[in-house]
Specification:
By secondary structure, the protein is of the alpha/beta class. The protein is 66% helix and 8% strand. The chain folds into two domains: 89 residues, Alpha-D-Glucose-1,6-Bisphosphate, Chain A, domain 3 (3-Layer(aba) Sandwich), CATH 3.40.120; 207 residues, no CATH class. Strands 2-1-3-4-5 form a five-stranded mixed β-sheet, with helices on both faces. α6 packs parallel to α9 and α9 crosses α13.
């Protein structure tokens, strides 16, 4: 028995990737949860519009940070501002009493606004609170679009990496080295089946979400489809890269989980970015799931116009191009060896 124990310890010591994951991952998760695991939103950006905007801006509670003041604006401008995701709430003055319009797609921030506005009603009894896009502040309304991204992330990263590394173990990738294929042909060929499966999964998830949980779909199907395609290119590219540096499926799963967990925790899918500590919040802005969440929630819940989502769509395009380039570079070594082999044979 002792010999078996010693043998296992030696094997674990030699597998440095597994050893590092066993030691570092709990520490990383502890630090991330310590800074990111919070539903409390202390600061929310709001706008104040209408004839009494200047005076009303001084009465806004401290946790509501006035981002802009527009005395010429009205309700239509306020709704458009919320639809574009510029602020979380808008105080509209004029008429009998002021009205606070709240973006319900930002669930935790919206709850913070409603709580602060309820306290403000004690001083201003005529104040009206109106939640748009998600009037009942349902959790499913904001979670289902993000869960669609999580499905794409799982298929694109985990399933793709396992499928490709399986071919590497079977020697299939070595056969590509003696075939007249360009690196981008190899990449497209590898990811095409997973792309199709992920697209079908996304459609199923969104259909179930809209039919079973009454999640609205207020925006453009084209905009959501474009965001999904760009996000898939990122996740599939990452999956191919993971498979190219993994020697077996166990290593592929480890690396895939190391890229998957931060995106689940730090993308705003569960915990709002605004409640995270500055030390970890910047990581969320480097993750593709962050921008897919912005696109999916913006399109489905708020009906955001295309031009208001250009920033997250553009960043997804940049990340997709980087993932594609890195994937092609990883396969270039295989194909270069194939060309050398064909040259030697000639």
């Amino acid at each position: 028995m002792w010999a078996m124990v010693v043998k296992e310890f030696r094997q674990v010591r030699r597998d440095r990737r597994t050893l590092a994951m066993m030691i570092l991952m709990p520490v990383v998760l502890l630090v991330v949860f310590g800074y990111a695991a919070s539903f409390d939103v202390s600061h929310v950006d709001v706008a104040v519009m209408g004839p009494a905007a200047e005076s009303m801006s001084t009465q806004v509670p401290d946790r509501l940070v006035v981002d802009r003041i527009d005395p010429a604006g009205g309700r239509d401008e306020a709704v458009d501002l919320l639809r574009r995701g510029k602020v979380v709430a808008v105080v509209v003055t004029g008429g009998d009493s002021p009205t606070i319009l709240v973006d319900g797609s930002e669930l935790f921030a919206a709850r913070a606004v409603v709580q602060a506005a309820t306290l403000l009603q004690r001083e201003m009894p005529g104040l009206t609170i109106e939640v748009l896009f998600n009037p009942t502040l349902d959790t499913s309304t904001v979670l289902v679009p993000g869960l669609g991204g999580l499905i794409l992330l799982f298929v694109g990263t985990v399933i793709t990496s396992l499928g490709v590394v399986r071919e590497r173990q079977a020697g299939t990738l070595e056969q590509l080295a003696v075939m007249p294929l360009r690196p981008r042909d190899v990449f497209v060929g590898k990811v095409a089946p997973y792309f199709g499966v992920a697209a079908v999964d996304l459609i199923i998830v969104l259909l179930i979400g809209t039919l079973l949980f009454d999640v609205p779909f207020n925006g453009s199907v084209f905009t959501l489809a474009l965001g999904s395609v760009l996000f898939l290119f990122v996740t599939l590219g990452v999956g191919v890269v993971i498979s190219s540096v993994s020697e077996n499926q166990g290593q592929a799963i480890q690396l895939a989980l190391m890229t998957l967990l931060p995106q689940v925790l730090l993308s705003g899918l569960i915990f709002p970015l605004s409640s995270m500590g500055p030390g970890v919040r910047w990581i969320g802005y480097l993750l593709p799931l962050t921008y897919f969440n912005q696109v999916a929630r913006g399109v489905m819940v708020r009906g955001a116009p295309f031009d208001s989502l250009l920033v997250p769509l553009g960043l997804l395009a940049v990340l997709g191009a980087l993932a594609f380039t890195l994937s092609v570079a990883r396969f270039r070594g295989f194909l270069g060896a194939g060309e050398a082999h064909r040259g030697g044979g000639a």
